[in-house]
């Protein structure tokens, strides 16, 4: 009631003001000099100028804002690249660790063998001495120990020289084996030290990766924090996504036409789809959704599968030919597979792609690894299915069972 009364009062004021203005203008016609002065005009001109300046300032701010946002998108892109680089480094260090592990196992085995051989060789040497003593040929140890002087010793050594020569081979082998064992022990120590170093490098690379990932996700969250400011950027990303999707359909049609011209079968897999990841947790379905956190499309075009982390394998949902495998600011790392006339599947936001364009993949083959690249605030798989050139919902909702569609999933509250 109070509001209504206020409104009416406001209206009344405006009417009175309008009437006063009409009167003033009417008066101005009669008495121009008294009603309007140059000062009034100049004041208005000043005001116009200042408004114009303000407008330009606002435009500049908006431009700066747009720049900030596209810079953020570019930053995310660079971060995605950095993440891919760190992942490659991690894979490299992991391979090194595996190599070291194999080397250590191998060296340990060789060492055991050498030690066994040494023991056998030493046993052989002892046998020789015992044998000669038994035979009464010569007891050169006894001979040497009985030396009364250095000269006596040298003389005795001459006497045992022949026997020594005979056994020298056994002794040399023993010495060589001992040297080999020492060397292997040193190699083992080095391998273990280097492996430890690689392990700690791996740990630091992993934490580097974690911080790069949270930074990348923060960039997108920052982008989506103020809806008004970022609407344009998100619209751009969506437009990009639409254009990429349309291009994928064009490529699929082209492939089917080529296959038909070559007399090849164009239906690569008439059967159903399989889950593209091991998770069955759906965070967003095809169609309406209230853009959670202002992120992504408000009219979602795919199925988002969450709880996949950054290292889960992504499987080809159906057999077919890879027609797209690339990075974009919206889809991030994504792959599109053509399954025949008007039928494609698209997998987005991968941390890495495992297939290239032109490759034929069987249903269930690993085509990439889950991630959060592109317009994505956290790891999930964005999965799109197109049939007869139209995006469809691949989930079997139960109300009307659809043959070959996906079942056994859980919908998150926001889906
Ligand atoms: Zn999505």
Give an overview in words.
Helices cover about 60% and strands about 15% of the residues. The chain has six helices and 14 strands. Strands 1, 4, 6, 7, 8, 10, 12, 13 and 14 form a nine-stranded mixed sheet that branches. Strands 5-11-9 form a three-stranded antiparallel sheet, with no helix packed on it. A hairpin with a 2-residue loop joins strand 12 and strand 13. Helix 3 crosses helix 6. The two termini are about 40 Å apart. The N terminus is likely disordered. Bound molecules: zinc ion. The site of zinc ion (ZN) has 6 residues, from loops. Zinc ion binds next to loops.
Give a brief outline of the structure.
The protein has 415 residues and is of the alpha+beta class. It contains six helices and 14 strands.
């Amino acid at each position: 009631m109070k509001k209504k009364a206020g409104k009416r009062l406001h209206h009344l004021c405006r009417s009175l003001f309008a009437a006063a203005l009409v009167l003033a203008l009417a008066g101005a016609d009669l008495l121009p000099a008294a009603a309007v002065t140059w000062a009034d005009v100049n004041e208005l001109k000043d005001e116009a100028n200042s408004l114009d300046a303000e407008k330009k300032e606002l435009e500049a701010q908006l431009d700066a804002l747009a720049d900030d946002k596209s810079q953020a998108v570019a930053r995310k892109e660079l971060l995605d690249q950095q993440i891919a680089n760190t992942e490659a480094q991690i894979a490299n260090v992991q391979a090194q660790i595996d190599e070291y592990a194999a080397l250590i196992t191998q060296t340990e085995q060789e060492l055991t063998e050498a030690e066994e051989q040494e023991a056998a060789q030493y046993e052989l040497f002892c046998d020789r001495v015992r044998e000669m003593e038994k035979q009464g040929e010569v007891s050169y140890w006894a001979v040497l120990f009985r030396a009364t002087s250095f000269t006596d010793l040298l003389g005795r050594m001459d006497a045992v020289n022949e026997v020594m020569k005979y056994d020298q081979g056994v002794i040399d082998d023993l010495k060589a084996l001992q040297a080999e064992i020492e060397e292997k022990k040193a190699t083992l120590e080095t391998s273990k030290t280097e492996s430890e170093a690689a392990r700690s490098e791996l740990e630091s690379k992993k934490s580097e990766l974690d911080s790069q990932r949270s930074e990348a996700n923060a960039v997108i969250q920052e982008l989506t924090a103020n809806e008004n400011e970022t609407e344009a950027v998100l619209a751009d990303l969506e437009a990009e996504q639409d254009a990429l999707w349309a291009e994928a359909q064009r490529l699929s049609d082209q492939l089917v036409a080529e296959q038909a011209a070559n007399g090849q079968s164009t239906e690569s897999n008439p059967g159903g789809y399989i889950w593209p990841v091991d998770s069955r947790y759906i965070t967003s379905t095809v169609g309406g959704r209230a853009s959670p956190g202002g992120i992504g499309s408000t009219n979602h075009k795919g199925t988002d599968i969450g709880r996949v982390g950054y290292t889960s394998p992504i499987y080809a949902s159906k057999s077919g030919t890879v027609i797209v495998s690339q990075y974009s600011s919206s889809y991030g790392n994504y792959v599109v597979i053509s399954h025949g006339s008007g039928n494609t599947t698209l997998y987005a936001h991968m941390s890495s792609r495992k297939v290239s364009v032109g490759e034929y993949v069987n249903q269930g083959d690993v085509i990439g690894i889950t991630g959060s690249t592109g317009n994505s605030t956290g790891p999930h798989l964005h999965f799109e299915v197109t049939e007869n050139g139209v995006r469809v919902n691949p989930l079997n909702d139960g109300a009307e069972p659809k043959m070959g569609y996906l079942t056994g999933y859980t919908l998150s509250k926001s889906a």
